[in-house]
Each structure stands twice: as C-alpha cells, then as structure tokens.
Write a sequence for this structure.
C-alpha cells in the first residue's frame, strides 16, 4: 500500500539522491601493483626413465599450496584437497640444511 503513495515516491527519490551523493564522494580504489617478486622460485624436473624423456617446469609462488596446484594443473590434473602432515615441514628444512 505504501509503494504507490506520494510519500513513497518522495522517499525513493531521497534514497536515490543519497546514493548518488555517496557514489560521487567515494574515491576510486586502484588495485595494488602486482610485482613479479615471489617468495619461492622452483624448478621441477621430471625424468621419464622408461622413454628417456625429461621436462622442466619453472614456477614462482608465494605458497606451497599454489605450487602444488599449479604443478598439477600443468600436468593436467586437478587437486581436490590437501592435508598437512605434522612435522613434515621441519623434516624438509632439516634435510635441506644437511645437504648444504
């Protein structure tokens, strides 16, 4: 019943005016510049011992999750989930330090 009254018309006009003013005063936010600096630079080499093939897949990433999902995508697979194993990262770091 309120929707077709002169008061409703006036209210809608007021709301639209307020929204127009708000849009006019809201600054445009520019997206942050994307830098090519990533935390990890990785080369994954895959050797095929049966047919003697080899492929190197370079990757730049900020997380192991994006590294694994990107690698899987490059190979034509889709990962539906990953589970973190307790202590696995510490084991990987200690192994890398021992190789130095």
């Amino acid at each position: 019943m309120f929707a077709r009254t002169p008061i409703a018309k006036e209210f809608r006009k007021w709301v639209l005016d307020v929204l127009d003013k708000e849009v006019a005063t809201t600054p445009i936010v520019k997206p942050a510049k994307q830098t090519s600096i990533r935390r990890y630079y990785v080369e994954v080499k895959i050797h095929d011992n049966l047919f003697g093939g080899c492929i190197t897949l370079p990757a730049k990433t900020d997380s192991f999750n994006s590294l694994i999902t990107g690698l899987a995508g490059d190979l034509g697979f889709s990962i539906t989930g990953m589970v973190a194993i307790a202590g696995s990262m510490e084991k990987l770091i200690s192994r890398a330090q021992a190789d130095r």
